[in-house]
């Protein structure tokens, strides 16, 4: 079925909350009503539930985010042009009228996006996702790529244009929570092995 656009309403942070206080100090901003709602476009493979995982995480963290995506019904995206405009005798023409119609949605939503998340899976070749990443980069959009580590080499040029490279959908949610509110996960990715940079590599500025 078509992935529904998810809109998450913002909530007012309680001034009594210690975590809210830390967030305000870190970001110099609040999530009061009327503040920015971030537009996040979810591009890429349609064969797993990664979009739903991000939507659930955004809702769980009450982030001021509106999620959008292409039509994720493979059959509808293939046949939309033929259903609406009429069938074509040759496959290239059938594909063209469908792709052109889908492109209206894709171009509009990427142009409107603050952040474009591009998911690559390791089972299928997502040519469309790579095109979306290039289009978003040309528009100067902030890009988050999402893919398993075993295909990192093939995507090195795409990743070089990304602001963050994530291995799972929860990392995307945590990235959004940080850039929007300054919130960090309670447990670092490396767990107990995590060491702050000043302890691991030394202070960057010896006279802060």
Which terms would index this structure?
6 strands; 8 helices; 6-stranded mixed sheet; single chain; 208 residues; alpha/beta; 43% helix
Number of discrete helical segments: 8
- Low-pLDDT windows of residues: 1-31
Termini distance? 54 Å
Beta-strand residue fraction: 5-15%
Strands, total number: 6
Strand order of the largest sheet: 1-3-2-4-5-6
Q: What's the order of the H and E elements? A: EHEHEHHEHEHEHH
Shape: elongated
Question: Radius of gyration in whole Å, from Cα?
Answer: 20 Å
Q: Sheet with the most strands? A: 6 strands, mixed
- Computed structural class: alpha/beta
Could you characterize the architecture of this molecule?
By secondary structure, the protein is α/β, with parallel strands linked by helices. Helix content is 43%, strand content 12%. The chain is built from 8 helices and 6 strands, in the order βαβαβααβαβαβαα. The model is unreliable at 1-31 (pLDDT under 50). Helix 5 links the parallel strand 4 (115-119) and strand 5 (142-146). It has helices at residues 18-27, 50-60, 74-85, 91-112, 127-138, 156-160, 169-181, 197-200, and strands spanning 6-7, 38-44, 65-68, 115-119, 142-146, 164-166.
Secondary structure blueprint with pairings:
Elements: E1 6-7, H1 18-27, E2 38-44, H2 50-60, E3 65-68, H3 74-85, H4 91-112, E4 115-119, H5 127-138, E5 142-146, H6 156-160, E6 164-166, H7 169-181, H8 197-200
Parallel strand pairs: 2-3, 2-4, 4-5, 5-6
Antiparallel strand pairs: 1-3
Helix pairs in contact: 2-7, 3-4
């Amino acid at each position: 079925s078509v992935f529904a656009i998810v809109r998450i309403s913002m909530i007012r942070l309680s001034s009594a909350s210690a975590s809210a206080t830390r967030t305000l100090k870190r970001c110099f901003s609040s999530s009061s009503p009327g503040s920015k709602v971030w537009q996040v476009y979810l591009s890429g493979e349609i064969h797993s539930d990664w979009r739903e995982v991000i939507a659930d995480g955004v809702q769980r963290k009450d982030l001021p985010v509106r999620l959008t995506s292409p039509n994720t019904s493979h059959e509808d995206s293939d046949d939309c042009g033929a259903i609406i405009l009429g069938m074509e005798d040759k496959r290239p023409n059938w594909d063209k009228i469908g792709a052109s119609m889908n492109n209206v949605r894709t171009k509009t939503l990427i142009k409107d996006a603050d952040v474009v998340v591009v998911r690559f899976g390791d089972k299928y070749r997502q040519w469309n996702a790579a095109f979306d990443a290039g289009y978003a980069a040309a528009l100067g959009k902030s890009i988050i790529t999402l893919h398993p580590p075993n295909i990192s080499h093939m995507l090195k040029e795409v990743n070089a244009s990304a602001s963050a490279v994530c291995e799972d959908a929860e990392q995307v949610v945590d990235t959004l929570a940080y850039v929007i509110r300054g919130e960090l996960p309670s447990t670092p990715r490396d767990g107990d092995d995590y060491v702050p940079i000043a302890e691991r590599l030394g202070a960057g500025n010896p006279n802060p």
